[in-house]
Amino acid sequence: MPPSENNVINAATRLCAVFGSPVRHSASPAMQNAAFAALALNWRYVACEVDPKNLREAIAGAKAMNFAGINLTVPHKLLAVDMVDVLDASAKKWGAVNTILFSEQGATGFNTDADAIVTSLREDLKVELRGARVLLLGAGGAGRTAALKLAAENVAELFLVNRTPSKAEEIAGEIKRQFPGANVAVGYPREDMDLVLNATSLGLKPADPSPLDENLFSLKRARAVYDMIYRPAETALLAAAKQAGCRTANGLGMLLHQGAKAFEIWTGQAAPLDVMRRALVENIYGGPKS
Ligand SMILES: NC(=O)c1ccc[n+]([C@@H]2O[C@H](COP(=O)([O-])OP(=O)(O)OC[C@H]3O[C@@H](n4cnc5c(N)ncnc54)[C@H](OP(=O)(O)O)[C@@H]3O)[C@@H](O)[C@H]2O)c1
């Protein structure tokens, strides 16, 4: 079959990329290239290892080379806030940039992570955040975005737990400044929780223990547990949660929805969610997830 215009790379090909360090395990190229192919777009998406000290030059270079857009992953999301020409309301609100659109306005920074958390919780766990009681583990970049978003969604109670408690205290202070009515505390709750959300990186290695101290909070008191980690598919936390009878989900849906929103920002077209999900599952788990 002769190559169609859309499956060859030529002078008209539009480029997107993810910048990160390390970035070689990123599943975003598989997800985004599958979406471009499904919509017959002559676009390509690559992963670039970018050291934080070169991030400003890398963004300027992508802009100068007429890239359509880029994603930013660890450790660039906070740094990039000061490296774009325009901050979209989403990036201003959550203080982090994971998506850049290059246009006549220059480089515009967006945050598509925060909404993706809520969409995935709703889709994968049927959790509605308004009025929910939530225990959030982790106060790094993802934990901070999640905590602020949960407060914005009007959760009834939010408990923040982190290995370094001062970071959780700092986020609690930020929430109280931004959302004066929010009910936020640092430490484990005494009451039952609608949701336990892991935003720590403990669990990324298959031998990692659970980040939850079950002496201080028993999973029998949680209705649903979400782990932002998606590789491995089942962390020690999720295994224990299943055992305790909780509804569980891993972070694949969050990865999917932040990428789908980025796709829509760049192309102006609706993201083919099923295609993107299948590409992620194939890339990360090597086949349909059981
Ligand atoms: N599904 C998705 O789309 C998605 C998107 C973003 C992030 N994530 C996942 O979310 C996790 C956090 O990402 P991030 O960007 O927030 O990373 P980060 O900024 O480096 O934060 C790491 C967090 O994990 C905690 N932590 C690390 N090692 C620990 C240990 N041994 N014991 C207890 N806590 C530990 C840290 O606690 P300290 O503050 O005490 O260091 C901090 O709260 C990662 O697993 C990442 O893969 C998933």
In brief, what are we looking at here?
This protein is α/β, with parallel strands linked by helices and 290 residues long.
Topology:
Layout: E1 14-20, H1 28-38, E2 43-49, H2 55-64, E3 69-72, E4 86-87, H3 89-94, E5 99-103, E6 106-110, H4 113-125, E7 133-137, H5 141-152, E8 157-161, H6 165-178, E9 184-186, E10 193-198, E11 222-227, H7 236-243, E12 247-250, H8 252-267, H9 273-285
Helix pairs in contact: 1-8, 1-9, 4-5, 4-8, 5-6, 8-9
The structure holds NADP nicotinamide-adenine-dinucleotide phosphate.
Would you mind describing this structure in some detail?
This protein has 290 residues and is of the alpha/beta class. The protein folds into two domains: 14-111 and 255-285, Leucine Dehydrogenase, chain A, domain 1 (Rossmann fold, 3-Layer(aba) Sandwich), CATH 3.40.50; 114-250, Rossmann fold (3-Layer(aba) Sandwich). The chain has nine helices and twelve strands. It has helices spanning 28-38, 55-64, 89-94, 113-125, 141-152, 165-178, 236-243, 252-267, 273-285, and strands at residues 14-20, 43-49, 69-72, 86-87, 99-103, 106-110, 133-137, 157-161, 184-186, 193-198, 222-227, 247-250. A six-stranded mixed beta sheet has the order 2-1-3-5-6-4, sandwiched between helices. The protein has a six-stranded parallel beta sheet with strand order 9-8-7-10-11-12, sandwiched between helices. The longest helix is centred in the C-terminal third of the chain and has 16 residues, at 252-267. It is globular, with a radius of gyration of 19 Å. The structure holds NADP nicotinamide-adenine-dinucleotide phosphate.
